[in-house]
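Attaching the record inline, Q. Sequence:
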Amino acid sequence: QVQIQISSRHYEYKVIIDCLVSKRIIDPLPTVTMDKNHFKIPSNLALADPAFYRSTDVDILLDAEVFWKILCVGQIEESSDHPLLQKTLFGWIIGGRYPINSPHQRAVQCNLS
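Structure, as predicted:
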């Protein structure tokens, strides 16, 4: 177990958290690299992860206590067919549906704790 400080690249926010160190938290997310042009993201939004659309390893998994503290007022939902944008103290995050057309790239990701 280690204690680390994480900070926002966009806002004056930092938090110290206790972490368990593991070789791998979960399979890479998203499960496939997505077409970033599919997302209608206003250019003035500072994203928490500007490369959110690339399939990559997860660096850190925040617990619910931290997650609820970082949420801010601010949501953008283009339509029910597009992911939701949520403002956080780390920048805007994206979550929700994304169409995958290839049957070889379909995966279901369900995380429970």
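The chain has a mean pLDDT of 87. The first helix runs from residue 64 to 70.

More tomorrow.
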